[in-house]
Amino acid sequence: MAQKNFETSIKRLEEIVHDLEKGDLPLEDSLKVFEEGMGLIRFCSKKLEEVEQKVTMLVKESDEKYLHQPFDMEKNEEE
């Protein structure tokens, strides 16, 4: 099995949502892809938590305390 990464997992989740929303899958197949989707959600959530921890470690105030602030895309694009 190929190694999972965040981007391919998100893409697969989008495919699963699309397939389930169409409603064309038999019940058993719907259950299988739903279970797959739940596993991908857990994987992606874990990856996001790991990234958040890394970002928190990198952003420090000068007195060595962690600075917890939300990331603002618009503000950072202007810089």
What does this structure look like?
The protein is mainly alpha-helical. The chain has a single domain, classed as Helix Hairpins, CATH 1.10.287. It contains three helices and no strands. The protein starts with 5 loop residues before the first helix and ends with a helix. The model has no long low-confidence stretch (mean pLDDT 82).
**Largest sheet features:** none
Give the amount of beta strand, in percent.
under 5%
Low-pLDDT segments:
none
Could you report the average pLDDT, rounded to the nearest whole number?
Answer: 82
What is the tally of helical segments?
A: 3
Span between termini: 42 Å
CATH top level? Mainly Alpha
Share of helix, binned? 55-70%
Total domain units: 1
The topology string of helices and strands comes to HHH
Structural class: mainly alpha
The number of E-state strands comes to 0
What is the CATH topology classification name? Helix Hairpins
Note the overall shape.
elongated
Gyration radius, to the nearest Å?
A: 18 Å
CATH architecture: Orthogonal Bundle
Features:
79 residues; mainly alpha; Helix Hairpins; elongated
Helix-strand blueprint:
Elements: H1 6-22, H2 27-58, H3 73-78
Helix pairs in contact: 1-2
In short:
The protein has 79 residues and is mostly helical. The chain has helices at residues 6-22, 27-58, 73-78. The longest helix is centred in the middle third of the chain and has 32 residues, at 27-58.
